[in-house]
Specification:
heterodimer, A: about 375 residues, alpha+beta, Immunoglobulin-like, Cytochrome Bc1 Complex, Chain D, domain 2, five-stranded mixed sheet, B: about 525 residues, mainly alpha, Cytochrome C Oxidase, Chain A, 17 helices, globular
Chain lengths: ~375, ~525
């Protein structure tokens, strides 16, 4: 008994200590950065307070009773067991409260649904395990993966998450949107159901394979807003964050131009030193391959094959190129990987000490010839 | 009553009235008390199996970073924890209580269909064992969540068809149990016990049994469609073949929402049984309790898509499911008010069953509040699939269903064993549970509101503090449940002494089981009781 008390005391102290040591956690819903998210926050607070008041009334009555109407105080039990008036009253009052809640709630449902008259559209495709963004108005199209720093830490047993800024909430290429513009999002998925959530925008929306969902936002102020996938989508569900950067129109326009230029550029096929091939190859690997083949190249037994010591990886180079470009029934075809990235990747997986391979060769971007007969 | 039994024993041409000897007694038994015990023991064992899985989850979430398990195994743990707790622990525990108590509460000699009763139990064991065996299969146990949403669930490894077959078996077992409960209540009540004179536990179970019969075939149908989608080239849930993955969610939640009420309605029944006894006052509003239970059961069938507000429902659907869901607050509120009014001006004592029951009323109401918050569709666009919902449904299951199951254990153990449990350790168990369950689940509200999604094995740094607190609570809660096991064994071995037939003061005025000796003889009410208690309505 004494030990239990000590344990409880420790626990309370610990909770208090934790509470004072870190100030960066929050207890309540974010207010968000859009009118819609403010409306939802206010609705949340309204219902929360209603619940608090009902709770105080009900629990107050109950604890008064528990304290006073006890046998040890000699309280004699009454014998009443029904009272129609009281029962009608405590049915009608909650009904009225619910009606009061339903009115602002209905308005918010309607507001959430107002996707019409948007000024631009972005198509968001959920994939295992990253987001794919396509700007329908200007043709910008890119993938958004978990950033390398988080990727490395969560995949290594001894990684320390506290050394990474925005651990698991950062991506390599964030979604960039203009402020003060009504943006319509279209959601779909390539494989399983995902859900796209940025708390600051006030909502999440499921991305269903084969179907399209809509939602909208209008961000007032520039800023970086972070979120995550919220529908269980497999092994790396916890590792596909969303980052939205809102920029003022002129900065956004500059970003669009820069991104489009880069997107339309032919890949740089110039010769690269071995160390550059290896370093960039690691990035390509972390983005495209690590989810299945793992950071140590051992794969997952029963699910994904190992690259470590694999004949396919360390054997004939041409066959390896063809294999990566063609994919298998389980592995996607990486036909769209530019030649320079493919060269970096192949050099990396054949020689990376982390993967336990050491063939001792390399391939330059201009030496990649399509091994896959692209009939598209 | 005992005189009647003794008289029968003299007739050797009658079949044997005592239990079989040895292990065979438990395998071939058709006695409602034996089967009730089997269910309860099995449920308690599964409670610890599911609890171990929960502790694996909480260990991984103790700190940010991946320390112990692979993310896929983590997903298997969240999936299996839910399936084991729902189908292996909570539901069987209530079926166990139903087996033990319904015949004794309505003055019947046994369940109406005793052989099917036996089959239903062993089918459950087979189903749960089959489910557990998937843990050792290539590709691991199912890891798509207990909701088994396609297309993700179709990526399950070798375990897939086995998991689905086990769901079929669990469903058949539940349906048989439910048919038995209905047949018993409709046909075997003692003379004078009209429907509106039945104890509320019997009422709530009657309604639960109808829910089970209605929903289990729906779930079986949904998982069978998954099976044919994977193996026989159908495309119920595959857009490429003209199907729709969201269709599965509609079917699943048509089962799933009533299913959660299957776990809470008998909980209401037990609470309505225990609170009046320790308040020494009749239950307030017996008939409104019955109607409220019926109303909740009815509403449970027409609110399913509130689990799917963000899935892309049309606006009319959002509004309809929001309004319908909000309505549930009314009958649920009536119940909470009735329990409070039952305590009001009573003469209360606070033995362990009462403590657990009061904690149930308070903490279940907290789960009800968060339920009300989530019924508001637009705000659910923030709450959905975060730790807020995890906190919500654990409040309505752990300090509600599990607490009431504990309360029921303490309340009826003396009747089952003839011995009194150790009140001091019982109260220690209560206080440890009540405090730690809040340390465990309350911070999860904060995590959810702050933006932590559910079903993730690793999280951002700002979620670290409350996850650690929650994990500490989980370990205290988990290990303090071992006290219950100790108390049960100790009580069977003698506890703190023999008890009278009535056990609790004036309990026989409330319900028939307190009119038979303690421990309850192997056969009770072989002749109907002469009068029925009237204090409970």
């Amino acid at each position: 008994m004494k030990k239990t008390k000590q344990l409880l005391a420790c626990l309370v102290l610990m909770a208090l200590g934790l509470g004072t040591a870190h100030a960066d956690y929050t207890l309540n819903l974010v207010q968000g950065v859009t009118q819609l998210s403010h409306e939802l926050y206010d609705l949340h607070m309204l219902i929360l307070w209603i619940c608090v008041f009902i709770g105080i009334a009900v629990f107050g009555t109950m604890f008064y009773s528990i304290f006073h109407h006890r046998k040890s105080k000699g309280h004699q039990a009454a014998t009443f067991h029904e009272n129609t008036t009281v029962e009608i009253v405590w049915t009608i009052i909650p009904t009225l409260i619910l009606v009061g809640m339903a009115i602002p709630a209905t308005k918010a449902v309607i507001d959430l649904d107002k996707v019409q008259e948007s000024e631009m559209s972005i198509k968001v495709t959920g994939k295992q395990w990253y987001w794919d963004y396509e700007y329908l108005d200007n043709g910008i199209h890119f993938e958004s993966h978990l950033d390398e720093a988080s990727e490395k830490v969560h995949r290594q047993k001894d990684g320390d998450p506290r050394t990474v800024a925005n651990y698991l909430l950062n991506v390599d290429k964030p979604l960039v949107v203009p402020t003060k513009k009504k943006i319509r999002f279209l959601f779909t998925a390539a494989d399983v159901i995902h859900s796209w959530w940025v708390p600051d925008l006030g909502w999440k929306k499921d991305a269903n394979p084969g179907f399209i969902n809509e939602a909208w936002t209008y961000v007032e102020n520039p800023g970086v807003y972070r979120g995550q996938c919220t529908e269980l989508c497999g092994r790396d569900h916890g590792f596909m964050p969303v980052v939205v950067i809102a920029m003022e129109q002129d900065r956004y326009d500059a970003w669009v131009k820069e991104t489009l230029d880069k997107q339309n550029q032919a890949p740089d096929l110039a010769e690269q030193s071995r160390s550059v091939l290896m370093a960039k190859g690691e990035s390509v690997y972390l983005k495209n391959c690590v989810a299945c083949h793992q950071i140590d190249g051992k794969g997952i037994s029963g699910w994904y094959p190992a690259l470590r010591g694999s004949e396919k990886v360390t054997g004939n180079m041409d066959q390896l190129i063809g294999f990566i470009q063609a994919g298998t029934s389980k592995m996607p075809a990486f036909r769209k990987l530019p030649d320079n990235e493919l060269a970096q990747l192949i050099t990396y997986i054949r020689n990376a000490p982390e993967l336990g391979n050491n063939v001792g060769d390399e391939i330059q971007p201009d030496k990649i010839t399509p091994k896959w007969d692209d009939d598209e | 009553m005992s005189a009647v039994v003794a008289e029968h024993d003299d007739h050797h041409d009658h079949h044997d009235h005592g239990p079989q000897k040895g292990v065979l007694r438990w395998i071939i038994t058709t006695n409602h008390k034996d089967i009730g015990t089997l269910y309860l023991v099995f449920a308690l064992a599964m409670f610890f199996v599911g609890g171990t899985m929960a502790l694996i989850i909480r260990s991984e979430l103790f700190e940010p970073g991946l320390q112990f398990v692979d993310p896929n195994f983590f997903n298997s743990m969240t999936t299996m924890h839910a399936l084991v707790m729902v189908f292996g622990a909570v539901m069987p525990a209530f079926v166990g209580l139903a087996n033990w108590m319904i015949p004794m509460m309505i003055g019947a000699p046994d369940m109406a269909l005793p052989r099917m009763n036996n089959m239903s139990f062993w089918m459950l064991v087979a189903g749960v064992l089959l489910l557990a065996s998937t843990l050792f299969m290539e590709g691991g146990a199912p890891s798509a969540g207990w909701t088994l949403y396609p297309p993700l669930v179709l990526q399950t490894g070798k375990a897939f068809p086995f998991a689905i077959f086990s769901v079929h078996m669990l469903g058949i077992s539940s349906i048989m149990g439910a048919i038995n409960v209905i047949a018993t209540i409709f046909n075997m009540r003692a003379p004078g016990m009209t429907l509106m004179k039945m104890p509320l536990f019997v009422w709530t179970w009657l309604i639960t049994a109808f829910l089970l019969i209605a929903i289990m075939p729906v779930f079986a149908g949904a998982v069978t469609m998954l099976l044919t989608d994977r193996f026989f080239d159908t495309s119920f849930f595959d857009a490429a073949g003209g199907g729709d993955p969201v269709l599965y969610q509609h079917i699943f939640w048509f089962f799933g929402h009533p299913e959660v009420y299957v776990m809470i309605l008998p909980t209401f029944g037990v609470a309505s049984t225990i609170i009046p006894v320790f308040a020494r006052k009749p239950l307030f509003g017996y008939s409104s309790m019955v109607y409220a239970t019926g109303a909740i059961a009815f509403l449970s069938f027409i609110v399913w898509a509130h689990h799917m507000f963000t899935v892309g429902l049309p606006i009319a659907g959002e509004l309809y499911f929001m309004y319908a869901t909000m309505l549930i607050a009314i009958p649920t509120g009536v119940k909470v008010f009735n329990w409070t009014a039952t305590m009001w001006k009573g003469s209360m004592t606070f033995e362990t069953p009462m403590l657990f029951s009061i904690a149930f009323v308070v903490l279940f109401t907290m789960g009800g509040f968060t339920g009300l918050m989530m019924s508001v569709a637009p705000v659910d666009f923030q709450y959905h699939d975060t730790y807020f919902i995890v906190a919500h449904f654990h409040y309505t299951l752990v300090p509600a269903s599990i607490f009431i199951l504990m309360a029921a254990g303490y309340y009826w153990l003396p009747k089952w064993t003839g011995n009194m449990y150790n009140e001091k350790i019982g109260q220690l168990h209560f206080w440890l549970s009540a405090i730690s369950v809040n340390i465990l689940f309350f911070p999860q509200h904060f995590l959810g509101l702050a933006g932590m999604p559910r079903r993730i094995p690793d999280y951002a740094i700002q979620f670290a503090d409350w996850n650690m607190v929650s994990s500490i609570g989980a370990f205290i809660y988990g290990f303090s449940q071992l006290l219950f096991v100790y108390i049960v064994i100790d009580t069977i071995r003698g506890g703190t002494g023999k008890v009278s037939a009535e056990v609790w003061e004036d309990a026989s005025k409330h319900s028939l089981e307190w009119t038979v000796p303690s421990p309850a003889p192997y056969h009770t009410f072989t002749t109907p009781p002469e009068s029925i208690p009237t204090e409970h309505f």
